[in-house]
Design goal:
67 residues; 434 Repressor (Amino-terminal Domain)
Length: 67
């Protein structure tokens, strides 16, 4: 799930053509955190943080129970 959320956030940043600095403003984090996100450093992000960032980007997160 973390990988999926990170991929969604990277797509958001790319689709909006945001600089890392602008993405950081929107997401409410430092530019270095956006760099970690873009580089796929998933170990630096908790699931809760990724959900928060996804929500700040204006996306909706749906949690589904595994079958």
């Amino acid at each position: 799930m973390r990988a999926d959320l990170m991929a969604d956030l990277r797509k958001f940043i790319k689709a909006k053509r945001l600089t890392q600095a602008r993405a950081a403003e929107i997401l409410g984090v430092s530019q270095s955190r956006v760099s970690d996100l873009i580089r796929g450093k998933w170990e630096r992000f908790s699931l809760e943080m990724l959900i928060t960032l996804t929500t700040r980007a204006g996306m909706h997160v749906v949690l589904r129970k595994a079958a």
